[in-house]
Amino acid sequence: MLNTSVEIAGVQFKNPVMTASGTFGSGSEYSEFVDLNTLGAVVTKGVANVPWAGNPTPRIAETYGGMINAIGLQNPGMETFCKRDIPFLKQFSTKIIVNVCGKTTEDYCQVVERLAEEPVDLLEINISCPNVKEGGIAFGQDPKAVEQITREVKKRAKQPIIMKLSPNVTDITVMAKAAEAGGADALSLINTLTGMKINVQKRCFALANKTGGLSGPAIKPVAVRMVYQVANAVKLPIIGMGGIATAEDALEFILAGATAISVGTANFNNPTATAEIVKGIEEYLIENKIDDIRELIGAVK
Ligand SMILES: Cc1cc2nc3c(=O)[nH]c(=O)nc-3n(C[C@H](O)[C@H](O)[C@H](O)COP(=O)(O)O)c2cc1C
């Protein structure tokens, strides 16, 4: 019998396909396109302790093979999220991973403590957003800060914690090791790469924030390389992402060492991408007479 299920930090996922934070809302916008029951997990948009307005507009722009965004983690805050979004997601037989953001260690801890009593399977801690001045990437670019925030969050978390790493560093394995030392249960990578676009006709920045995070197929080779490096540097399971649009893309990440994968920007131009990837992975396993997807994890050395 075909096995597509994978395990991360003791949690069983029916398949390795997840949604990338911030590109799938909390699932409701996409539920008319995708049966959420078919996904391994829904990873929610970043949630903070209080509502955040996000950055001024314009805050997204298309680029070759992708897009740049500087949304700035707009979100309704944890109370609205817990009342509105968790009950919606609980209707489906998929795992719930909540992405957590904050400006200070205390902010992150407050959200983690609030979620402790909620029916959430794992927490993904975003220490890698390039579009906020405080918190976010300020934590993710300093190994001491990565280790410290991981330790503080881990102390308070009821659910296993996934630390989400930034690619905007010289050596991502240093950050991965710091998160492992701080007690992380898993890692996810990559967040967006800092970029810039200039509107030549108007002679101004395309985004009000000047810089934004580059995502989509353009970043995939960078992401695959980083997943491979991190898989060979730490023992933690990895959720790989960055430009995944097809089953073949997803399989590249798994062969490089990811236990699961997330689909982000692809959802915007193909809202059924996640479901197609689930199906495509199954077809690949059958065609290649592979009984268990776990045989593929890190199979390319
Ligand atoms: C519009 C947009 C919003 C995002 N919001 C978040 C977020 O709230 N938290 C987070 O950790 N990552 C966020 N990300 C990063 C994605 O989860 C993902 O790491 C990145 O886009 C790379 O994957 P992709 O190329 O498949 O989009 C966002 C990305 C985009 C494009």
The fraction of residues assigned to DSSP E strands is: 15-25%
**Helix run count:** 9
Work out the helicity level.
25-40%
Largest sheet data: 8 strands, parallel
- Uncertain spans, ≥5 residues at pLDDT below 50? none
General shape: globular
Placed side by side, the strands forming the largest sheet appear as: 3-16-15-10-9-8-7-4
Strand and helix order: EEEEEEHEHEHHEHEEEEEHEHEHH
The CATH architecture name reads Alpha-Beta Barrel
How far apart are the termini? Answer: 27 Å
> In the CATH hierarchy, what is the class?
Alpha Beta
Radius of gyration: 18 Å
CATH superfamily membership: Aldolase class I
Subcellular location: Cytoplasm
InterPro entries: Aldolase_TIM (IPR013785), DHO_dehydrogenase (IPR050074), DHOD_1B (IPR033888), Dihydroorotate_DH_1 (IPR024920), Dihydroorotate_DH_1_2 (IPR012135), Dihydroorotate_DH_cat (IPR005720), Dihydroorotate_DH_CS (IPR001295), Dihydroorotate_DH_I (IPR049622)
Keywords: Cytoplasm, Flavoprotein, FMN, NAD, Oxidoreductase, Pyrimidine biosynthesis
Binding site for FMN: 21, 45-46, 99, 126, 164, 190, 216, 242-243, 264-265
